[in-house]
Amino acid sequence: MLTKFKSRIKSRPSMAGSTGEGFPEFLAEPRESFPHGVLVTNPQQSSLAQLTAKCMEYVEENLTHHPAILFRNLPAKTAEDFSIIAREIPWKALTYEGGNSLRQKIDENIGTYTANNDPDEISIDPHNEMSYNNVYPSKVSYVKIQSSFKLKPLTNVSPFHMSIAGNYEIVRREGIQENQYPSHTFYGDGSDIEPAVIQHLLATAWSCAVGFKWRRGDLLVLDNLAVQHGRLGFEGDRKLLVYMTT
Ligand SMILES: [Fe+2]
C-alpha cells in the first residue's frame, strides 16, 4: 500500500548531522507494518465523521501493537475536514503551549495546528512530540490535506523560534548562542552533551527511521511515547496538519 522510495540522506543539505560520522546513506523504506497501513475502502459510502469513528475504533484496538497507523484514502481535503476528523478522535485535545516549533493554530475551538512552518528545505530530526515539556501528548495525529487553504499571516514569531534540533546547522551558521535558544538539553549534572554523542544519537535515530510519501487524505496516528517522527526537507506545496491528544 505504501509507495517504496529511496531517499539519500547522507550529506543532505539542512539536515543536522548528515555530514558527520555514522550517518546512514539512505532513509529506509517502510517495513512490514511500520507504519501499519490501513486502506479506507468505499469512502464515498459514509460521512467523514463515520469513517473517522471507524478508524478510531481500529486505533483503540491496535495502537498497542502498531504504534504508527496510517489510514489512507480518507476523503479529507481541507482544514475543515480535519476539524471533523479531530472531533471524532476520542482523547482530550492538548494545546501546543510550551512547544518550540513554528506552528500555527488552524481551528481554535478544536485544537488543530499546522504541523510545522519551518522552511520547506529543513529536515527535522526524529523526535517524540514535546518531549522537552512537562506536559506532552500521548498520541499525535497528522493529516495531509489539499494545499489551497489560507493561512493568516504569522505574527510575533522570532525567526529563531524554531525546532532547534532540526535546525542545528542554521543556528550554527547564524551564530546564535546556546543561551539564546528557546530550550536546551544537558546531562543530568548540567554539563554539556559532547558533539560526538549528539552525532551518534542523530545517526542512530535516522538509521532506525523509515520514510513514506504522503498522499492527500492520509491520516497518521502515532503513539508518541512508542515512536518518533520527523521529516525530510521537501519541495512543493505539501500541507500537513496536526492534532495532539492526551
Ligand atoms: Fe513533531
UniProtKB/TrEMBL annotation:
InterPro entries: AlphaKG_dependent_hydroxylases (IPR050411), TauD-like_sf (IPR042098), TauD/TfdA-like (IPR003819). Residues 1-11 have a biased composition (Basic residues). Residues 171-242 form the TauD/TfdA-like domain. The keyword Oxidoreductase applies. Residues 1-24 are annotated as: Disordered. Pfam families: TauD (PF02668). Keywords: Oxidoreductase. PANTHER family: GAMMA-BUTYROBETAINE HYDROXYLASE-RELATED, TAUD_TFDA-LIKE DOMAIN-CONTAINING PROTEIN. This is TauD/TfdA-like domain-containing protein.
